[in-house]
Design goal:
The protein has 220 residues and is of the alpha+beta class. The protein has 6 helices and 10 strands; from the N terminus they run E-E-E-E-E-H-E-H-H-E-H-E-H-H-E-E.
Amino acid sequence: MKQEIEYQCQELTCQSTFSWAVSFCPFCGVKQTSIKVKVVSPLFVPPSVDKSTPCPIPMHEQVGNAVSGRHSVSTPKGERLPDLVLTEDAQKKFSLHIADNITNSYCDSTTFSVLLRFGKNNLGLDVKRVESILSLTLQRLNIVNEKALLDELAALLHVFTDTEKKLDKKGRVDALQSVCKPRSGLMKGVDPEIAEKYINDFCRENGVMQRSGIWGWKIL
């Protein structure tokens, strides 16, 4: 009986399947050090006294480890594995939807949230995995991901200010340049006005003082 073999990503939040062995998952990018193999047997018709009414019965799926070469049953007999695999067709439709909703190769934070909700509702996957797929798609299409860059900006501001709760002019300029300067393959970075506002909001929310006048410091 002919069997079909699929390889499954080892990342728990991905678990995508593909028909060939890879070093890195083409969907989430995680390095594959131990690839799961799904051996799927087709439907078969058991012998029956009344051959005019055959009753197809699906065989169980066997999941084995590609490293050991052994196969083991991953679920009790008769139970179906949860459908966590993103199909290629769904991936293409989501990518097209993303491209159709982006203008000027720039995805602002609001649009990112809208696309994230769309992906979660239509793909039936958890938010973290949809966000990963969305971010990778934006990167592949050379579209600025404002949310990701602002997350980087927040992390950098924490490094600059967590100890002394002060942000000097040099630190502010360095932070702005880190996200406003276009990255490789992109036409632009974060909108400077948005980055400036984000820094001011960050400082107010975290009690960080900025330069005021020549010698003074205060929360702006």
